[in-house]
Amino acid sequence: MTGIDDIWSPVRLTLELATVTTAVLLLVGTPVAWWLARSHARWKEALAAVVALPLVLPPTVLGFYLLLALGPNGPGGWIAGLYGARTLAFTFTGLVIGSVVYSLPFVVQPIRNAFEAFGERPLEVAATLRASPWDAFWSVAVPLARPGFVTGAVLGFAHTVGEFGVVLMIGGNIPGETKVLSVAIYDFVETLQWTQAHVLAGGMLAFSFVVILVTFLLEKRLRRDRP
Amino acid sequence: MKRTVLLSAALVAAVHALFAAAPAVAAEIRVAVAANFVEPVKEIGALFTKATGHQAVFSSGATGQLYTQLTQDAPFEVFLAADQATPQKAIDEGFAVAGTRFTYATGRLALFSKDPALVKGEAALTEGRFAKLAIANPATAPYGAAAVEAMKALGVHDALAPKLVQGNNIAQTYQFVETGNAELGFVALSQIVRHAEGSRWLVPDSLHAPIAQDAVLLKRGADSEAARAFLAFLRGPEGRAVVEKFGYGSGN
Predict the structure, then answer these.
(1) How far is CA A145 from CA A116, A119, B79, in A?
(2) Do B64 and A173 touch (CB under 8 A)?
(3) The whole model's pTM is what?
(4) I need a labelling partner for A13 at 20 to 30 A (CA). Which of A98, B81, B120, B181 fits?
(5) Do B70 and B90 contact (CB within 8 A), yes or no?
(6) What is the spatial distance between Cα B176 and Cα B187, in angstroms, rounded to a whole number?
(7) Which domains, and CATH codes, for chain A?
(8) Contact list, B164 vs chain A (CB under 8 Å)
(9) Average pLDDT, stretch B22-43?
(10) Surface of B (9-68) touching A: CB under 8 A
């Protein structure tokens, strides 16, 4: 009844989702982290709190609001309307949007910390050497903040792989499109197909351990290499 | 300082008076109830208290979760499940009293859309004027299995398969339709029976196996007069009236 594809398809889908999500998270998260680290605006901690909300909110709350936002009466439905669809729920794009929101704090926080750690001085020096702000950002700030980027990317990727509640609420469990690893495991357990559940759950456990271990080792090494 | 002491003394006295006022014979029973039946059972509980003086306290959850809890010595005296297999299993494994299982409600399946013009009858399934049709996960939810059976009986299942999206349970399936993300879906009649919006088609019972929900007396409640009284009240005329009002068949 269960073929190899029932196991492989969710794994492949999950890796695709996590890769795309991590790329988007770095693109979106970096400017946010930069602004949070550098700005003196009085309401900046309010924005920081909004970014951190997914850490605290249960996935059911996020999932419910995402379902409304992606639906025909929300902004997601408006975007879907541009190419003739009604909703972004039940699509890969919808899952990417949900995952980006859900994993944002895991990427923004380490990058922000890294930007804050080296202070104003290196950028001031770069400015006196006539580096433009853009140039200084790429050739001074980003290399100095490298450990933050590595940690953020690894955590964002891993957190997306392990995501469950949000995907369950906006995905619709469509094989090959929205049926990701964690949902597949849940289904196998609920239907007492424990062998398949063991294969996936065991793989997930090993994967998570390796990811966390690699993050720790990388951080240690990068800290030591730091000039 | 002195005033606070006086005030709390008065409060304590008041609380004591409150408890003393309750009838001496009244007992409290704990009922584990499947999530889909929470609303009706609360109403039945209120009528039960009025009729007998006993109090019923309800803990709701998924049937499987409640079962796991009661095998771990959860303090329930009565179990109202969303299926027949789990109460039977409770009897087989020694957690419930043999001979006390009965069907207290039968779920009715309905095809529902927020769009008042979409569901005129079963034709809505073949006209295909929709992109997504929501059902509950047929592998885990009785309403999902019934929806698949009904679609197969109508000969539309294979054609509709690419349009299906699955909710994890019937509550989530309803949410997909209610938020408009799916144009229509197979939901429980009990979810839509009390409002008239949208359009709906009550799926005939003949198209799927009955979605029977069984109750059983647990071992913990074997010696409890109140627990037995509650089960009798549930299958009595007052209980049955509430069950039907909420869109369920009232069993046997």
Answers:
(1) 9, 11, 57
(2) no
(3) 0.79
(4) B181
(5) yes
(6) 10
(7) 4-225 (1.10.3720.10)
(8) 174
(9) 84
(10) 64
